[in-house]
Automatic annotation (TrEMBL):
Organism name: Apostasia shenzhenica
Section of the entire sequence shown: 601 to 900 of 972
Recorded superkingdom: Eukaryota
Protein name: P-type Cu(+) transporter
Protein family: Belongs to the cation transport ATPase (P-type) (TC 3.A.3) family. Type IB subfamily.
Compartments (UniProt record): Membrane
Underlying gene: HMA5
Amino acid sequence: ATPTAVMVATGKGASLGVLIKGGSALEKAHKVKTVIFDKTGTLTMGKPAVVHTMLFSSCTLQEVCRLAAAAEANSEHPISKALVEHAKKLHEMYGSSNDHMIDVNDFEVHPGAGVSAFVCGKLVLVGNKRLMLSSQVPISAKVEKYVMETEHLARTCVLVAINGVILGAFAVSDPIKPEALRVVSFLRSMGITSIMVTGDNQATANAIAKDVGIDSVFAETDPAGKAERIKNLQAKGLNVAMVGDGINDSLALAAADVGMAIGAGTNVAIEAADVVLMKSDLADVITAIDLSRKTISRIR
Ligand code: ADP
Ligand code: MG
């Protein structure tokens, strides 16, 4: 495209809340045949909440919740915030005392798995099955069943182990963005295939994908794995767009032909992307591709 055409399209994009960094993204976007969406914070709101709890011991819910929230208190992960928020609500309802006196040591983040810490001298693990298995915490048939049921409801199951025994679990639900289904089906009508990629487990990922009309899912994928998926598709000659919001999406956003960051996402993602969706509205994925198609066709 001519510099003038690029300038006009970039200006039009900016007025629509679609920030296009440079002409190259604009030149490539019209060729996109595949859009890869991150799950958490991209297809979903990224604001998970605790929607169900389960106890596997005679321990009280308040006690499990208090210890889990203390372990999660130093983490920025959306799941951590959901647990801390839930504990706060329980506390307001039942008003257990001296919460400020909880002492937390050796806090550790386990990426894609959960967190651990010593809370009041007890080893507290909060996370998924992978975290429990890597710490040699046994998973009973009852726990296994609860995890499976939770995941099939499109929820993420967060297990809480104290001193090596799973005492309780939280089902965390992150609502799907209202426009997600509509955008995926419109992309299909444009001849564009949508794929989901996520660090979350297969069953939860499948359930969310089904709700938004995506057939193809790559679950339990770490940041490097997300970028790897894109390179594999590119090796088949496909032009790939990636839409993401997290630090864990930045490698993939950089690897894609067109990286699109959710405006409400992390700075790292915004910096790695070619396009920023300022309104955080998934429909603007279509706006960006459309702008490119119109710009290119006007020139030829
Ligand atoms: P995504 O790619 O969907 O953003 P992450 O890679 O951040 O997901 O996390 C993958 C999974 O690891 C989560 O679904 C959850 O099961 C577990 N997990 C990660 N961080 C935490 C945490 N702070 N507390 C509990 N579980 C966690
Ligand atoms: Mg995300």
